[in-house]
Amino acid sequence: MTRKPRWTTVSPEEIKKWEKNRVEIECAFCRGKGKDPFQLLSKLSDCQVCLGKGKLKISGPAVKCNFCAGKGIDPYTTSRLTCPACGGAGMVTGIEPSKKCANCDGTGVYPRRPHPVPCPKCKGQGVVPK
Asked: Which residues 6+ apart lie within 8 Å of 111 measured at CB?
């Protein structure tokens, strides 16, 4: 007996519901310009986060990333890397209802050498579901 893949069981109504709940935001990594802010490959290369569009869609409600303070850049390494918590978007999907993460005491930062990383429990956001 063969199993159906999960994607074949998603109804069109479910897809419409997901799309309706999505929010369009400005890319924090390139600040909405659509070009690579560090010009790593060339001056003409597109942003690796928004793929040159300058905008991203995430599931709502959108809140500012706690790990990078909404900048989209990893604050604890060289400034050329995207934030590991939000992927460079600067915003993440908010958790409702939520409580402060006990693992990192609500900071979203897990102290590790040589540089801190996002907390594995709250994924860098400082809050977990109730």
From this structure: none
pLDDT tens digits, 52-111: 888 888 877 888 888 888 888 888 877 778 888 888 888 888 878 888 888 888 888 887
**Tokens found for residue 115:** 């540089």
Distance between CA atoms of 29 and 126, rounded to whole angstroms? 21
State the Cα–Cα distance between residues 43 and 28, nearest whole angstrom: 18
The dihedral through the CA atoms of 72, 127, 6, 57 has a sign that is negative
pTM score, whole prediction: 0.70
Is the pLDDT higher at 104 or at 5? 104
The rounded distance, in Å, linking the Cα atoms of 106 and 126 is 4
Distances from the Cα of 84 to the Cαs of 2, 14, 124, 125, in angstroms?
Answer: 37, 29, 8, 11
How far, CA to CA in Å, does 27 sit from each of 22, 67, 89? 15, 16, 5
* Distances 23 to 84, 94, 99, 107, 119 between C-alpha atoms, Å: 20, 12, 23, 25, 25
Residues ≥6 apart with Cβ < 8 Å to 98: 127, 128, 129, 130
